[in-house]
Amino acid sequence: MKSLFLNTLLLLAFVLPAQIIVPGKWELVKQKEEVKIYTRSVPNSDIKEMQMTCTVSGASLSSFVALFQDLEGYKNWVFSCEKAYLLKRISENEIIYYINSDFPWPFEDRDFVLRNKIWQDENTKAFHSKSVAHNNFYATKKGIIRVKVFEAEWIITPLTNNQYYLRYTFRSDPAGSIPTWLINSFMDVGPLKTIKDMEKQAKSDKYSTLKYSFIEEL
Q1: The domain 20-208 is classified under which CATH number: 3.30.530.20, 3.40.50.300, 3.30.565.10, 3.90.380.10?
Q2: What is the pTM of this model?
């Protein structure tokens, strides 16, 4: 009986994790106009995850999809984006792309190579766009620091009367030394400017009339 008990303990030690690791709770750290910014700790990492939420208006859900699909147009609404372009199209809903982020002098710019997938939730009709770092796919550039830790997801959920609930979650290690004032600037200006410019662009003639076969409007 003792032998059976010990064997059972050994088996459980192999099949059960030593501890259950869960992320910390979201904490509201900033609110500017309608945009709320939260952060939370991530297990086994010094990098905090950030989330911003708000409600925006738009012509249609497809108009936001069109905005996300137009990489060359990112510079018109993604804060600090200098340029973005396609590297490889895997399918209608999945791509690998490059994006360059402009940093003020004397700091070096950052760039990213990301694998992105988009889809629509069948139940909520929410549009999802998830990007993760896709390293060793595209050569690094002189004078630009490659960000190798990055994961982000946009979720845009249709409400009523052309209103949409937006949630953006991301975690990234910008690499290199970045002063607190610059981080605060990105936190203070970046989210609100991105949301405002996104909302404006999505309503423009360039995107507002476009439709997609894989997107079902409410």
Answers
A1: 3.30.530.20
A2: 0.84
* Cα separation, 141 vs 121, whole angstroms: 37
**Which candidate, 98, 177, 174, places its Cα nearest to that of 138?**
98
What confidence tens digit (pLDDT) does each residue in 12-30 have? Answer: 333 434 444 466 799 998 8
Domain boundaries defined on the chain? 20-208
* Residue 113 contacts residue 135 (beta carbons within 8 Å): yes
* Token representation of residue 96: 């690998």
212-217, long-range: CB < 8 A, 24+ apart: 212/62, 212/65, 212/66, 214/92, 214/93, 214/119, 214/120, 215/61, 215/62, 215/65, 215/120, 215/127, 216/120, 216/125, 217/60, 217/61, 217/62, 217/125, 217/158
Q: Considering only 6-15, 45-54, 185-194, which range has the smallest mean pLDDT? A: 6-15
